[in-house]
Amino acid sequence: MQTLRDAVLKADYAQVRATVSAMRASGAEEPDGAVFEHLSSAGLILLRDGQSGLAVDVFALMAERFPDHPDGYLHLEEAYRRAGRDDQVAEARRLATEVDPVVVAIATR
User: Fold this and answer.
1) What is the distance of C-alpha 73 from the center of its chain?
2) Are 79 and 47 in contact (CB under 8 A)?
3) Are 19 and 3 in contact (CB under 8 A)?
4) Which end of the chain has fewer beta carbons closer than 10 Å to its terminal beta carbon, N or C?
5) Rounded to an integer, what distance in angstroms lies between the CA atom of residue 94 and that of residue 3?
6) pTM, to two decimals
């Protein structure tokens, strides 16, 4: 996870892409709170830096690794919106709502 964080902070987007691909392929790492936080913060930094396509990749991985947590889907919804992928925005919201409708209602007021 340190590699992803370092790549994001250095704006080394090729390394971000490679790290996300490697994490997705391995699937070996057990999801935990630290992994969740690293993915969340990396994706948010990418959104802030205008890298919405990479943010989509990071948040999609977050949603895959933590399917029972609505934040991955909510962040993915915003990344899709910023990437102009409007056809996928509603699906991300639907998945977040399916996981936890209360959190989604609070987060989207």
Assistant:
1) 8
2) yes
3) yes
4) C
5) 32
6) 0.89
Beta strands in 5-78 (DSSP E): none
Range of the domain at 8: 2-107
Distance between CA atoms of 40 and 48, rounded to whole angstroms? 12
Q: What angle do CA 78, 52, 35 make, to 5 degrees?
A: 80
CB 76 within 8 A of CB 60: yes
Write the CATH number for 15. 1.25.40.10
1-45 residue pLDDT tens = 678 989 999 999 999 999 999 988 887 555 677 888 999 999 999
Residue 32 token pair: 């935990």
